[in-house]
Amino acid sequence: MLFVLGIGSLVALQGCVFTVVKDAFPLLKNWHVSLITALIGFLIGLVYITPGGQFVLTIVDYFAGTFIFFVLTTTEVLAVLWWYGLENFCADVEFMLKRRLGLYWKICWGVVTPLVLIVIFIYFLCSLERLKNGIYEIPDIALSFGWVLTAVGLSQPLIWWLIYLCKKRKGIIQAISYSFCFNNWGPKDIQTHEEWTQFKLE
């Protein structure tokens, strides 16, 4: 059971990395991307079988898995549903699925899910204690590494947005307004974008 669970998680993570790399570099061959990402993942994984691997696993799981997950997930849900707008989101889903969403989904996505995530996040912060590995306390230097890991993870959306702005440095004001103008958002494919625009107008 644990083996199958591990393989399932690995395939899902590998699929995410593979998709990101292929989107950024579409000319690369599939087997090249698979080989390189698998090799890098294997080399990183070797850290966990060292004598201090259990401590590293505890730190990475807590700071890079749990904390970042809570913060980014809560922020993402709030940004999409309360800033981009529940109606816009539902219209996009309806355009993709070709079917109207019921009231149940709107209540869950617009009210229940954001509030539950906020409550869980607040509880998580209130119950925050010094990290331990069994009976052993994690050293301060390791905790510092963990918080740096968290900072790097949480800063990713900002970093990539700044990279986008740097690429558009000749028209940085226009790039910023373009980033926040919902009217410019939509499918990348030109034909699909036209269909989506017409759907939104209707």
UniProtKB/TrEMBL annotation:
Q: Which residues cross the membrane?
A: 31-50, 62-84, 104-126, 138-163
Give the UniProt record's GO annotations in the biological process aspect: amino acid import across plasma membrane
Supply the alphabetized keyword list: Amino-acid transport, Glycoprotein, Ion transport, Membrane, Metal-binding, Sodium, Sodium transport, Symport, Transmembrane, Transmembrane helix, Transport
Q: Which GO terms describe its cellular component?
A: plasma membrane
What domain of life does the UniProt record list for this protein's source?
Eukaryota
Instruction: Give GO terms: molecular function aspect only.
Output: amino acid:sodium symporter activity; L-amino acid transmembrane transporter activity; metal ion binding
Keyword check for Repressor: no
> InterPro entries given for it?
Na/ntran_symport, SNS_sf
Q: Name one Pfam family in it.
A: SNF
Q: What is the documented function of this protein?
A: Unusual broad substrate spectrum amino acid:sodium cotransporter that promotes absorption of the D isomers of essential amino acids. Neutral amino acids are the preferred substrates, especially methionine and phenylalanine.
Name the UniProt record assigns to this protein = Sodium-dependent nutrient amino acid transporter 1
Q: Which organism is it from?
A: Ignelater luminosus (Cucubano)
What lineage does the source organism belong to?
Eukaryota, Metazoa, Ecdysozoa, Arthropoda, Hexapoda
